[in-house]
Amino acid sequence: MKRVICTRSTGWILELDITAYFDSIVREQLMELIEKRVSDSSVLRLIRKWIQVGVIDQGQLLGSDKGTGQGQTISPLLANIYLHHVLDEWFEDVVKPRLRGEAHEIGFADDAILCFHYREDAEKVKNVLSKRFAKYGWTLHPEKTRLLEFGRYAEERAKRQGKQKPGTFDFLGLTHICARSRRGKFTGHVRTMRKRLRRSLTAIAEWCQEHRHAPVDEQQKTLNAKLRGHYQYYGRPTNSQSLGKFYRGVVRIWRKWLNRRTRGNRMTWERYTELLRRHPLLPPRIRHVWT
Question: b/e map of 141-177 (b: 16 or more CB within 10 Å)?
């Protein structure tokens, strides 16, 4: 994605957010797309049965006449097949040849952005996108689907308009920011999305509360595995500040729940510092290289 934004003629970003991505798929249209590639009647019958299975909610079996059922093993695959036809092929074969400038699509499952050189191209696509999606049962979230200026000239234009900084956008758990390199060239920086950071720390707190009476070395082992997984995804070269916030948050949360293991024997910071020397938590690490 950085190659497209930083090295291509990208000036505008169209964020897409599909409401009820899995639950709004029109099953008959999905099966028609699958039948173009799969001719085995047994496989087609199995897929049809799979998508028609209901869900159990509070002990009751609930049925639906559309959607693939979020949570089913096959749902991500089927939804991606559907999206590939609705957006990917249409954008590549129908939309791009009619645009004035360059355009690129970057996506993963239902999280996607469209990059444009010219604003007029971006607005043209935004205007027809809702109709295209509606044809296949999907709707775009009116607030989360938005067009913003982003690229090498966005900062300069933002200043002319009286804004301190150009807008940012969220994609795959990261907030993308217009920035300058040490040599003054345009580049893109990332930060962990605030919502994702809060959610990750909430999950850590819930785990620590539930396992606070487990042996400390076992807690340390699991927490370090969680930290390692977080760094593996969010450990981008420009994201050290967010990684530090996450690490310090985990340190505070662990002390809080260790402090509640026993009554009258407080886990002071002095005791906790000594405990961390014997059972250290994995410090922030950048796992990805510049691309």
Answer: eeeebbbebbbbebbeebeeeeeeebbbbbbbbbbbb
